[in-house]
UniProtKB/TrEMBL annotation:
The lineage of its organism: Bacteria, Bacillati, Actinomycetota, Actinomycetes, Micromonosporales. InterPro entries: Hydantoinase_B (IPR003692), Oxoprolinase-like (IPR045079). Residues 21-532 form the Hydantoinase B/oxoprolinase domain. It comes from the Bacteria. Residues 605-662 are annotated as: Disordered. Residues 628-644 have a biased composition (Polar residues). Transmembrane segments: none annotated. This is Hydantoinase B/oxoprolinase family protein.
Length: 676
């Protein structure tokens, strides 16, 4: 089954292209890609797309190979999965990951593909997908943590023609929008995505008009070939023929099982690089599975390599034939239908940490710590005083890992184009107040280069409603490298209006909140790089002055400050000598303990029970109805607990907070609340 391209046949004749034309076309396409972003930002309605830019553009050649974009080519998966014709005036739409080989990875991503024709011949593709804030399903936001099937996660649209020969299929669109909670948002966001593709279509046709179709297509071939040659040289330089292996873990699946291993082995065979994920955990019962499209992974690997080694290489899909991807069927990264996939973001983020560990072993000068880790999500919904439905979807940020060239960024997205939702926007459009938005001192791992700090956002809810939380790195720590310390875990603390306090799991739905409750949404820090005792004491003092490191935290760097905040050089020298004499050999990777050690310390350090070892009883068949869904249970304690907890999952102990650094943070927050 594959798509059939309908066009007027044209001779596929390659022509010579002048260097100036090559540069003009390349930069024109790059500008068109950013113009696509601008169109979406100015016309979408949801905060996720309009404010945080959770949409990914693509301009491709006639074969679907990306020549400008951000997320790599996903058109090949669509063309393979679509059984029908592609004709001029058509626009395609899908939200089914399984129908397009993971070209999109969960039902919230609505993908629009527009074939670009010029003089009745196909000359390229424009495409974009954006994360819709809601696509129906069992919970607002459509990211149920306890789902065991994609059928619980919202409307699933197979590859269809949204526009056929220039005519919109209004009944199809109305049927899809009838399944979602905020159809006005979805309609506006879908129109924004479509308008961005129309913009790219216009720019490509202008280039064909200016230079001629044969010159334009030949230019794209040259751009792709230039990238292939450059990446082949890069791979030979940085990827060894001897295999290297690295693994990291997604903490839990939202149903109590975990952690789940992502394991990858990397080596090179001539010019070809092999990424083999044998040893990765079986698919999860919960919704953390990530249907990983091979081309998307090729893009991840290529971009990471370029950014770490040679940022001057211009990125496109030309190098894809040089990367061989091997992912076991039925694994966490290649689940079988109908496995739940809505919360795949945690595995997506963890892939970057795995790539960092792999490439860092190949080229120690490029070794970064961990910290991409996840993409924290918060959903808050309910009825306001006027009886109108409100629904917030927001992406939070953690600490970016420390790097060979410097400190990690504090509270920054793993995606470079993402931005935070302004607090003023949140307070203007939703019944809440942001009472704190701050860096969490000492949460970044200590090192010669400090890991980026996580952030604490304190949401005071002004209306009763329900909250969903999606995060990770609450059990495992973002590891440090070359002597650097791991970053602190993230945690979520709910301060009830009656003064009670509870630690909330990193993955939960149906968390009932009342007017006056405060949720402290605290994200993880990035791991540190290098020996903390080698960091310039004046830099540590400056970090303390800026509130990024505490006076006590400065002692991790062997730095002592006097009462005036000035470095005490004599006591600093003595403390550094003492610390150096008593510590063991510095590890290449510091995970903060083995999995078993983390399990033993989990309750005391996090306030939550550790996840249980996943039990894999085979792949689920298509469920008949919803009998396979588990029922959310509430811990049998006298303390008020949020609903949405899963039996056997990570449970808090009533009245307990976390200990050590986390306990200190909890008590500091409690004091701030009491002071109000």
């Amino acid at each position: 089954m594959s798509a059939v391209i309908v066009e007027t046949p044209r001779p596929a004749r390659a022509v010579e292209v002048e260097t100036a034309v090559l540069d003009i076309v390349e930069n024109a396409l790059r500008n068109a890609r950013f113009e696509m972003d601008a169109v979406v930002m100015r016309t979408a309605m949801s905060p996720g797309i309009r404010e945080q830019h959770d949409a990914f553009p693509l301009i491709a050649d006639r074969r679907g190979r990306m020549v400008a974009g951000q997320f790599g080519s996903f058109i090949d998966g669509f063309l393979t999965g679509y059984d029908g014709t592609v004709e001029e005036g058509d626009v395609f739409f899908t939200s089914d990951p399984y129908a397009c080989e993971g070209a999109i990875s969960h039902a919230n991503d609505w993908l629009v593909l527009l074939p670009i024709y010029y003089n009745k011949a196909l000359v390229g593709w424009a495409a974009m997908f954006g994360h819709m804030s809601d696509v129906g399903g069992k919970v607002p936001g459509s990211l149920p943590t306890d789902a065991v099937s994609i059928h619980e996660e919202g409307v699933i649209v197979p590859p269809v023609k949204l526009i056929r020969g220039g005519t919109l299929d209004q009944q199809l669109l109305d049927t899809v929008l009838n399944q979602v909670r905020l159809p006005s948002w979805n309609r506006a966001d879908l129109n924004a995505v479509l308008a961005s593709c129309r913009t790219a279509e216009t720019r490509v046709r202008e280039l064909c008009e200016r230079f001629g179709v044969e010159t334009y297509l030949s230019t794209l071939d040259l751009l792709l070939e230039r990238n292939r040659q450059a990446m082949a040289k890069l791979f030979r330089r940085v990827v060894p023929e001897q295999p290297v292996t690295f693994e990291d873990f997604v903490d839990d699946d939202g149903r109590g099982g975990g952690p789940f291993r992502i394991k990858c082995t990397l080596w090179r065979e001539g010019d070809r690089v092999v990424l083999d994920f044998s040893g990765t955990s079986d698919q999860a019962e919960g919704s953390i599975n990530f249907l990983l499209n091979e081309n998307v992974l090729r893009m991840f690997f290529g971009v990471y390599t370029i950014m770490a080694v040679d940022p001057l290489i211009l990125f496109n899909d030309g190098f894809y034939p040089l990367v061989d991807i091997r992912i076991p069927e039925g694994s966490l990264l290649k689940p079988r239908r109908p496995a739940a996939v809505s919360c795949r973001t945690h595995a997506l983020g963890r892939l970057f940490d795995v790539l960092a560990g792999l490439l860092g072993q190949c080229q120690p000068d490029f070794l970064c710590a961990a910290g991409f880790s996840s993409s924290p999500h918060l959903m808050y919904s309910g009825l306001d005083r006027s009886g109108s439905w409100f629904q917030l979807y927001q992406i939070g940020f953690g600490g970016v890992p420390a790097r060979p060239v410097g400190d990690g960024f504090d509270g920054h997205s793993m995606w470079p184009s993402f931005t935070n939702v302004p607090n003023e926007y949140l307070e203007a459009y939703y019944p809440l107040r942001i009472e704190a938005y701050e860096s969490v001192p000492d949460s970044g791992g200590a090192g010669l280069h400090r890991g980026g700090n996580g952030i604490r956002v304190a949401y005071r809810f002004l209306e009763p409603g329900e909250v969903s939380i999606h995060d990770d790195r609450w059990f495992t720590k973002p590891w440090g490298v070359l002597g650097g310390e791991p970053g602190q875990r993230g945690t979520k603390i709910l301060e009830r209006v009656d003064g009670s306090r509870q630690v909330v799991p990193a993955k939960c739905d149906h968390l009932v909140v009342r007017a006056g409750d405060v949720l402290h949404f605290i994200t993880w820090g990035g791991g540190g790089w290098g020996d903390p005792l080698e960091r310039d004491p004046e830099q540590v003092r400056h970090d303390v002055e800026r509130g990024l490191v505490t006076v006590e935290g400065a002692r991790q760097y062997g730095v002592v400050l006097d009462a005036a905040g000035v470095v005490d050089l004599n006591r600093t020298r003595a403390l550094r000598a003492e610390l150096a004499a008593t510590r063991a050999e510095l590890p290449r990777f510091n995970r903060g303990g083995t999995l078993e050690q983390l399990r033993q310390r989990c309750l005391s350090e996090t306030g939550l029970e550790p996840p249980r070892d996943p039990s894999h009883s085979g792949v689920r068949a298509e469920p008949a109805g919803t009998a396979a869904c588990s029922t959310a249970t509430r811990p049998s304690t006298g303390a008020a607990q949020p609903s949405g907890y899963q039996a056997g999952g990570p449970q808090p102990r009533p009245g307990t907070g976390a200990h050590s650094a986390l306990e200190t943070l909890v008590h500091r927050i409690a004091r701030q609340v009491a002071a109000r």
